[in-house]
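#struct-pred
JK: can someone run the complex with pyridoxal-5'-phosphate? inputs below
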Amino acid sequence: MKLYSTRNKEEKVDFRTAVMRGLAPDGGLYMPESLPLMPLSFWQALRERSITSKARIVFDLLLADDFTDAERDEIAGRAFTFDAPLVSLDERTHILELFHGPTLAFKDFGARTMAAMMSVFARKEGETITIVTATSGDTGAAVAQGFHNAPGVEVYVLYPSGQVSPLQEKQFTTLGGNITALEVDGTFDDCQRLVKACFADERICNARQLTTANSINIARLLPQMIYYIHAVAGMLPEGKSVSAQGEMTRPVVCSVPSGNFGNLTAGLLAHRMGLPVSRFIAATNVNHVVPDYLSDGNFHPKSSLRTISNAMDVGNPSNFDRMLDLYGNDHQAMARDILGAWFDDRQTRQAITEVWEQYGYLMDPHTAVGYLGCREHTADNEQGLILATAHPAKFPETITSLLPDALVTPGQLLQVAAGKKQSIPVEASLDAVRDVLLEN
Ligand SMILES: *Cc1c(COP(=O)(O)O)cnc(C)c1O
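RT: done, structure tokens with the ligand placed:
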């Protein structure tokens, strides 16, 4: 696969370069130069396959030049180790549960794929790759769990001491092995600044092959296409009930709870490959700059507001440039495929309670935003597919305040909570971080 930067389409790089760089040197985001357009019969043939097998097929289509057959097999097998089940509330409301991985959120798919790919690069090049990443909570957990025991990769997670929830902290401080947590005496902004400083530091860069694992990396985006394919292929009717025009009996509308819009962008890429989705709903909380753009064509980044769906508290979404690029900056074209919708915390809480009372199904606050988008903007002749991005047990305060008896904590979380925290305390200075990186 060849990729270009959203800021310069002329300069192409290969997949490995795009993955190792994360961001293009001109500050743009990497986009695939082309995607194969697949016919309906292709998607139908995937219907009964496992998610791992679907992942393998998608990697074969997109990354045949970048990894050998055996490597693609290895990546699919290491990353897609848990299922994404589809739960139907009624015949037009389907929930795709993306939270059965180690950190109980959809980011596990991207993080694990990226880790598997980097292990392959490290082995081929006979060199250890070092990931340095800053986290305010969730990203660090997904990255640490995804890279845990990945051969040839060492991970340093910088996090602000006392400013992440105890459970989140446990998710990246209890693993040990190739995962080192640096507990920074400072803020999340300090952590981000220190990560940047590491990349600019000659001594560190001479000693280690550094890379980031941030969410804009193409290796995290591409695998997110696979669960859309998994779900939609599973919803396709058998061959004969598809009409001559290739229309499905009931068009599928995907409602995606969004923050940085990586998840939605992955869906748009799958759509470009011909996946039969009729449109997307970009569902947000009160941080609604993208729904605003979709309605009036004006994009005004803002500072973010705090909500109960906090992983979506983003005022300047990092993948918006990719969305613009996909539609050639044509607002009308984008607005034909994507409808924006936003909801406040009161509506989100109400949806959690209502769905529990009506269907006995418990949603986390992010999923609830996606549910609201689906409920308000899907017609009777359509089927809504809601992406459930996190397990409700990750948000115990919100859930138990609404429904004291509904929550069942999954085993993964109990295990993490029982683990012993191991971190290296450092002051918020490059010297302190460098010492750790050069000593280990
Ligand atoms: C990251 C996250 C989101 C937002 O996903 P984007 O790809 O940034 O739009 C939604 N829900 C949960 C639970 C998340 O962790």
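RT: quick notes.
The pocket of pyridoxal-5'-phosphate is lined by residues 105, 107, 138, 257-263, 311-312, 366, 389-390 (CB under 6 Å).
The first helix runs from residue 15 to 21.
JK: thanks, will look after standup
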